[in-house]
Specification:
This protein has about 180 residues and is an alpha/beta fold. The termini are far apart. The protein is built from seven helices and eight strands, in the order E-H-E-E-H-E-H-E-H-E-H-E-H-E-H. Strands 1, 2, 3, 4 and 5 form a five-stranded mixed β-sheet that branches. Helix content is about 35%, strand content about 20%.
Amino acid sequence: MQEILYGKNPVCEAIKAKRRKIHQIYLLGKPGKPNDIALHLFFQKHQQKIQYVDHAFLDQLTYQKNHQGVAAHVEPFHYVDFEELVQKTGEHAFLIVCDSIQDPQNLGAICRAAFCFGVSGIVIPSDRSAEITSAVCRASAGATEHLVVTRVKNISRALNFLKENGFWCYGLDAHAEK
């Protein structure tokens, strides 16, 4: 199964991260006359297959009008195993555990900030939560392509596991008094 990434940063960051297979790039323009020469050169430098398309094609492919003239067929996002994440991150890991973030824009913003602050990984629940989709990738400006993300069945058990493995846990609530 494949998914569609759209927007300059998500597509370019997927190429730079080399974590997902890129099957096809769709770029606004015509052969020999792309609308964005810098993107065209970037894709050529990274040996990507480019198909030149019009606005209507990209609008239909992405179900969006804000695709910035580029989209790509890519492999689905790869989640890591929770225990593997804990083992890989090491002694000074900084994880963000999100509970019930359902809005893709909010999850994307969290991912973008997490990447900027050097977070080691993100834990999200597998139910009643946004997944890493093209909308989340777009909202994260491509940061999701560089983050390690895991999905767990039970956040409470995941937090207990982290505590048992030497992690300190801090909780934040937007509606708390303190």
